[in-house]
Amino acid sequence: MSYTDREIMAKIRASLKLNFSKPIPLRGERSFQAQLTPKGVHVDNLGASSLLPWADFLETVRFLEQQGGRALKGNATDRGGRLGTQLLPIDSIEGHLAHINYGKTLGDSVFRRIVPIAHILALAGICRNGRGYLELV
């Protein structure tokens, strides 16, 4: 499947408008709220870095298309998830976004954004959010 930027943004907007004020479920009992803005999506589970710009969603889908429709999410955690490590390879979604959208280089620590990005893309019907990977649908 191939999506234009306009289609990606329209699908996300439609899904978030449809689910307005409903929490987006995570694994277990957890959830997060997402709110559309002209610049992207504000989420309440990322602290001070709550804005996910449209570029993050667009680049995620482009990267998935380049990878044949499926890619590892990557793991930017405090357990050693530095860019270029086994937990966070540069050819994972999280690693790719950190490098391309945020200018991170090998060995840099990376802020974890993949959880809300993956759930929002799945809610929009663009991706399947698997354990450890995303896949275009």
Keyphrases for this structure?
137 residues, alpha+beta, 3-stranded antiparallel beta sheet, 4 helices, 33% helix, 19% strand
Structure description:
The protein is α+β, with helices and mostly antiparallel strands. It has one domain. Helix content is 33%, strand content 19%. It contains four helices and eight strands. Strands 3-4-5 form a three-stranded antiparallel beta sheet. A three-stranded antiparallel beta sheet has the order 6-8-7. The longest helix has 14 residues. The radius of gyration is 14 Å and the shape is globular.
Q: Which SSEs are present, and which pair or pack?
A:
Blueprint: H1 5-18, E1 24-25, E2 31-32, E3 34-37, E4 40-43, E5 51-53, H2 54-66, E6 70-72, H3 93-100, H4 114-123, E7 127-130, E8 133-136
Antiparallel strand pairs: 1-2, 3-4, 4-5, 6-8, 7-8
| Terminal residue distance | 7 Å
Helicity range of the residues?
25-40%
Give the number of DSSP strands. Answer: 8
Q: What is the alpha-carbon Rg in Å?
A: 14 Å
Strand content: 15-25%
Structure classification: alpha+beta
